[in-house]
Amino acid sequence: MYAETPLHPGSGSSINSAVDLPIQRERHTDFPIIQGSSMKGVLRNHAKEVGFTDDDVKRIFGAEGEEGGAGYSSVTDARILAFPVRTLAGVFNWITCPLILDRYKRDLKLANIPTNWNIPSLGEHEIITKDDSDTKVGQNVYLEEIRLNHKKLEGYETIWDEISKAVPDGEEYKFIRDKIKKDLGIVDNEVFRDMASLTTEVTARIAIDETTGTAKSGALWYEESLPTDTMMYSLLLLPKRHKNGSGSNNIADKFLLFNGKILNVGGDETIGRGFVRIKVISNAENT
Predict the structure, then answer these.
(1) What local confidence, expressed as pLDDT, does residue 261 receive?
(2) With bands split at pLDDT 50, 70 and 90, how would you rate the model's confidence at 285?
(3) Long-range contact list for 98-106, CB < 8 A, 24+ apart?
(4) CA 280 to CA 264: how far, in whole Å?
(5) Euclidean distance between CA atoms 41 and 47, whole angstroms
(6) Whole-prediction pTM
(7) Sign of CA dihedral 228, 26, 278, 203
(8) Looking at residues 272-278, what average pLDDT do you find?
(9) How big is the chain by its Cα radius of gyration, in Å?
(10) How many Cα atoms within 13 Å fall on the side-chain side of residue 126?
């Protein structure tokens, strides 16, 4: 998923936070996620728009109400893949980290999609980028107010190509694909966690009194969002118990209908948030 606008997959509550409406995060890493139940609801809500029949929706996502019954598909939590961060040079770049790359590699293997990159190791104050990255200033890269030492990417070149494959197809995304191939940076796990925690968008929101046209007393809250250009991914899986079931042979083809579509994820659709472009990467042998 490529975020065309800020995303607010709300957690519904704030725990020890100055933000009233934070986004969903993993408890143990603090990395942003979108819960699988939310992702399944998004796909279900948009299914008929992209060409699913009523029977497809019931069969693949499960029947609702008294009909009940589990669907033929499993949708995992959406995980962060690359996070956009402001830089001193080059405007911004995307960062990822060894933990994310290791997870992504394992998830692709689960989907029978081959990978051949090694997981890099680096120090807390290092960043791996290409030598010709526009974000370099001498031998340093500045992320927000943090200065990181540039480390050559020898042996890790394939990662840049693999991440760029997650960008949506089409000529309109050529600039993004080229920029990722040039400006993507790999940072230490702790640095990534801090950036993904402290550099999200936080917006002040108010409610207007309809009678006075001014802000309601006490109706001020702060809302967190993932920034535009965030990249996330989710797995769409067909459990083995349904793999040879009646009518299940075309489920993977049905999911391909989402490829290239704009879906709305999370809250605040009416103020232009939550719009993502979907790219479906599949392996026909694993359908």
Answers:
(1) 95
(2) very low
(3) 98/122, 98/186, 98/188, 98/189, 99/29, 99/189, 99/192, 100/31, 100/192, 101/159, 101/186, 103/79, 104/79, 104/233
(4) 16
(5) 10
(6) 0.89
(7) negative
(8) 93
(9) 20
(10) 10
